[in-house]
Amino acid sequence: MSISTLAEYGFTKFPAARMPFMAESVEYFKKHKPYSGLKIVHNNHLTLSSICKLAPLLLSGASLTITVTDSLQASPDVIEILHEHGVNITKINDLKDDFDILLDCGAGLANIVHPRIGAIEQTQSGKVIFEKQNRYPVISVDESYVKKLETLYGTGDGFKRAFNCLVKEDLAGKKFVVFGYGKVGHGIVRELKKMQCSPIIIIEMDNEALNRARLENFQALSINEDLGSIKKHLKEAFCVITATGVPGVVSKYFSRQDISDGYKVNMGTEDEFGENFLAEDVLANKKPLNFILEEPTLVEFLDPIFYAHNAAIDLLLTKKFAAGFHSLPLDFDLNILLRWSKFHKTDVSEIYQFI
Ligand SMILES: NC(=O)c1ccc[n+]([C@@H]2O[C@H](COP(=O)([O-])OP(=O)(O)OC[C@H]3O[C@@H](n4cnc5c(N)ncnc54)[C@H](O)[C@@H]3O)[C@@H](O)[C@H]2O)c1
User: Fold this and answer.
1) How far is CA 101 from CA 21, 34, 90, in A?
2) Ligand 1 midpoint to CA 255 (Å)
3) What are the tens digits of pLDDT across the range 296-355?
4) What's the pTM value of the predicted model, to 2 decimals?
5) Class of the 3-140+299-353 domain?
6) Is 243's C-beta closer than 6 angstroms to any atom of ligand 1?
């Protein structure tokens, strides 16, 4: 089976209307072969939606090597589908250090491959490693508004779909307490507001985040100064949600008895309720709630990230970047964001609050 059929397979799973950036790339790359003559290595998750990310690169004229380092998700079904279409996964030990471009996720290949032109990194965790090297330019897709679109809108939407799946109650007029008003917390509160949950109490430690919440007319309390009132709200809460990025944050300040028997939700990557709470106290046994879903984040929100990760190759080829670490250039980033907003007829202006 051919690569064109692989692309078609991908878009039967995720129609072009859901992934317009990838659908457009497939057509463009098939026609123009923009990366002919380049040797590219791609190290990223291999989930079903990855097929749509890989399809344009496989049609781009480049010699593409695909790897998946241990910390990344690799679905055996997806590897099988790729095999059936003549696309093989290269073992890390079999890699030769002979590439022009490295497309990496979590800096899995940072110490193995030394690209002649440069690298593009997808995540925050990869930043720490790539920031230390100065032999070639690295562009980070994580430092961008498109990433904020995924975290703020995409994760908020994932929270809403998962919560509605488990809790079949009318949420209007119910009290929610949310720890953390960063990107994820803001996205969750945005969805709670749409569902007419009220009051929504925001707990923060950062003054800028507290002010942002107050400007939006939420009751925002400081974890450092308002412990007494926070306890009162926790006792009355219909639901307590965590999104601080701090493992065990609730147990640092509160006991199990301090919080009502209402719903408890963790949306952080690690368990944010901590040792004072049993796994069964928290929905989804303390795992990020949206991970109970087949699509924790809808592909609509991954499509622009996939696009930026692939298309930043053009930036490396056409612009002069010094060796070292770079954020995604603002004009490139905003152009993707505005096109996404048009494709999906969605106002994205709240994203600009996050600099
Ligand atoms: N579930 C998902 O799909 C998903 C997606 C993206 C990120 N995440 C995870 O969600 C978590 C939050 O990510 P983010 O991007 O919103 O981070 P962020 O840094 O933008 O926001 C975190 C906020 O929590 C606040 N905070 C820190 N300590 C606090 C405390 N003791 N009390 C109250 N507030 C406190 C910070 O001031 C900050 O405003 C991370 O663990 C991240 O990995 C989950």
Assistant:
1) 21, 14, 16
2) 21
3) 999 999 999 999 999 999 999 999 999 999 999 999 999 999 999 999 999 999 888 776
4) 0.90
5) alpha beta
6) yes
